[in-house]
Design goal:
Blueprint: H1 15-27, E1 40-44, E2 47-50, E3 55-58, H2 61-64, H3 73-85, H4 97-108, E4 116-121, H5 124-139, E5 143-147, H6 156-161, E6 179-182, H7 197-216, E7 222-227, H8 243-254, E8 257-261, E9 285-288, E10 299-304, H9 323-360, E11 365-371, E12 374-379, H10 390-403, E13 405-406, E14 408-410, E15 414-417, H11 425-444
Parallel strand pairs: 3-13, 5-6, 5-7, 7-8, 8-9
Antiparallel strand pairs: 1-2, 2-3, 4-10, 9-10, 11-12, 12-15, 14-15
Helix pairs in contact: 3-9, 4-9, 7-8, 9-11, 10-11
The chain binds pyridoxal-5'-phosphate (PLP).
Pyridoxal-5'-phosphate is lined by residues 123-125, 128, 151-153, 228, 232-233, 261, 263-264, 289.
C-alpha cells in the first residue's frame, strides 16, 4: 500500500491536521499527553498515514499495542467475522466459545502454566485492579508493595501503586491505603559503590527484608508485590539477573503473591511471550493488556488455578472479554506463535546493535538498553556527568516527527522504541537512520 515510508509532503502539521487539532482542543480533555501533532487516518504494518497524506514510520505501535502492526489483514478479518456474528453478550453472564479458547491459549503460554485461570477485562488498569482484588481475596492480607519508577495505570488502585511521575498522583489523594514503595534496581543510575548490576539488585532486595519488613510492615500482612519485569513508563529499565529470582524467593518465603505486570512487556515484545520468562521465574498472577488484541480493548489476568478460586459475584465486568476483542486476541497470538515473537527477538537484537553503534559516536546518549523490541536510549548532558537531559529528549521527539519518524519518550529523559513485532531489519535500519538525523537536528536547536 505504501511504496515510500516515510513520505512527508509538507511542513507539519498540514492544514487538515491543524483543523482536527483545533476541534480536539475545543472538545477533548486536556489531560492527554500528546507530544506532537500526529493525526492518523490509516495505517498498514509500520506505516502510519496522517489526515494530509503524509506517511510516517511508526516506532511506537500506539504505545506498545499494535503487536501485529497497523490493521494486519488476518486480525481485521477476525474482527469483521466476529462482529458479523454477534458483538456482545457479556461473558460474565453467558458463555461463548472464543473466551475459553483465548483463556486456554494464554494459560498454555504462561511460564509454569497451563494450570491457570483467566479473568478478562478491558484495559491494563482494570487488569491491575483485578490483581489487587484477587491478591487480597486470596491472602486475606491488606498490604501491597510496588516500586519507584513503576506505572500500573490510572484508576485508584493502579494509580496508588504507580510511582513514575508525581503528576499522575497529584490532587487525587486520598490514594489507596496500605501501599508501600521500594526502589527498583536501575544499574545505570545506581550509587557508585554498587559497582555490579547484581549488587544493585541485592541492595534493593535488602531494603525489603531489612528495612521494609522490619520497620514498616510485617511480611505476613503483605498480599502482593507488583513488579514490571522490565520497567516501562519509568524508562525501559532492565533489572539485573538476580532481581526477579530474588523477589520470587522472598514472595515464596512469606506467602506473598508475586504479580508480574506484563501489560507493556508481554505478548512477545521482549522476544519471549512473557518478559519474566527471561529470568526463569513463575509469577503467581500476571496482568496483560496492550498488545494482547492488536489494539482492540482487552485486558487479562492469568493466575494459578489454586489462587483464582473466588466464587461467583466476587469480580466481573460487563464488557470484559468482549467477543470481538477476544477474536482479535486469538488471531494475534496465532501470529505471535507463527513467527512474530522470534522476529521481535531477532530484529530487536539487530535494532539494539544499530543503536549501540550510533551511540558510540554521540556523547549525549548515556545508555542504550532493553530486550527484544522494548528498547530505549537515555539522553544525558554528557556521558561523563550522566546528568539527565529531558530537554534534548523532548526536542528529539519533535525533530523525529518532522522527519517522518514516530517515537515516544519514557521516564524523564529516554526515547523508547516499541514498534510492531512485524518490523523488518530494513525498517529498523531506516528508523535508526532517521533517529540519528533527528538527534543531530535537535542538538542544533
Ligand atoms: N501497566 C503498565 C506496565 C503499563 O505500561 C500501562 C500503560 O502504559 C498500564 C499498566 C496501564 O494500562 P492501560 O493504559 O491500558 O490502563
Amino acid at each position: 500500500m505504501y511504496s515510500k515510508v516515510p513520505d512527508i509532503k509538507m511542513p507539519l502539521p498540514g492544514p487538515k491536521a491543524k483543523a482536527v487539532i483545533e476541534a480536539d482542543d475545543k472538545f477533548i480533555s486536556p489531560s492527554y499527553t500528546r507530544g506532537y501533532p500526529m493525526v492518523i487516518v490509516r495505517g498498514q504494518g509500520l506505516a502510519a498515514e496522517d489526515v494530509d497524506g503524509n506517511v510516517f514510520l511508526d516506532m511506537t505501535a500506539g504505545i506498545a499495542v499494535n503487536a501485529t502492526g497497523h490493521s494486519h489483514p488476518r486480525v481485521v478479518k477476525a474482527i469483521q467475522e466476529a462482529a458479523a456474528n454477534f458483538q456482545h453478550m457479556s461473558g460474565t453472564d453467558f458463555y461463548y466459545p472464543v473466551q475459553s479458547q483465548l483463556a486456554k491459549m494464554l494459560a498454555e503460554h504462561t511460564p509454569g502454566g497451563p494450570d491457570r485461570k483467566v479473568f478478562f477485562c478491558n484495559s491494563g488498569t482494570e487488569a491491575i485492579e483485578a490483581c489487587i482484588k484477587l491478591a487480597r481475596w486470596k491472602t486475606g492480607r491488606p498490604w501491597l508493595i510496588s516500586f519507584i519508577g513503576s506505572f500500573h495505570g490510572r484508576t485508584y488502585g493502579s494509580m496508588s501503586l504507580s510511582a513514575s511521575k508525581a503528576v499522575h498522583r497529584t490532587r487525587f489523594a486520598p490514594h489507596l491505603s496500605n501501599v508501600l514503595h521500594a526502589n527498583y534496581p536501575y544499574p545505570y543510575r545506581a550509587a557508585p559503590h554498587l559497582d555490579t548490576p547484581e549488587k544493585v539488585a541485592d541492595d534493593c532486595l535488602k531494603y525489603l527484608t531489612d528495612t521494609m519488613f522490619k520497620r514498616l510492615v510485617n511480611p505476613d500482612e503483605v498480599a502482593a508485590i507488583f513488579v514490571e519485569p522490565i520497567q516501562g513508563e519509568g524508562g525501559y529499565v532492565v533489572p539485573p539477573d538476580n532481581w526477579l529470582p530474588g523477589l520470587r524467593e522472598l514472595c515464596t518465603k512469606h506467602g506473598i503473591m508475586l504479580v508480574a505486570d506484563e501489560i507493556q512487556s508481554g505478548m512477545g515484545r521482549t522476544g519471549k511471550f512473557f518478559a519474566h520468562d527471561h529470568w526463569g521465574v513463575e509469577a503467581d498472577i500476571i496482568a496483560c493488556a496492550k498488545g494482547i488484541a492488536s489494539g482492540m480493548p482487552l485486558g487479562a489476568v492469568i493466575a494459578k488455578s489454586e489462587i483464582m478460586k473466588w466464587p461467583p459475584g466476587t469480580h466481573a465486568s460487563t464488557f470484559g472479554g468482549n467477543p470481538i476483542a477476544c477474536s482479535a486476541a486469538v488471531e494475534t497470538i496465532k501470529l505471535l506463535d507463527e513467527g512474530l515473537v522470534a522476529n521481535a527477538a531477532a530484529v530487536g537484537e539487530h535494532l539494539k546493535g544499530k543503536l549501540e553503534a550510533w551511540a558510540k559516536g554521540c556523547d549525549r546518549a548515556g545508555e542504550v538498553r532493553g530486550k527484544g523490541l522494548m528498547l530505549a536510549v537515555e539522553f544525558v548532558k554528557s556521558r561523563a556527568s550522566k546528568e539527565k537531559d529531558p530537554i534534548l529528549r523532548n526536542a528529539v521527539e519533535q525533530t523525529a516527527f518532522k522527519r517522518g519518524l514516530l517515537i515516544l519518550g519514557c521516564g524523564e529523559n529516554n526515547i523508547r522504541f516499541c514498534p510492531s513485532l512485524t518490523i523488518t531489519k530494513e525498517e529498523a535500519d531506516k528508523a535508526v537512520e532517521l533517529f540519528a538525523a533527528a538527534v543531530s537536528d535537535a542538538m542544533k536547536t
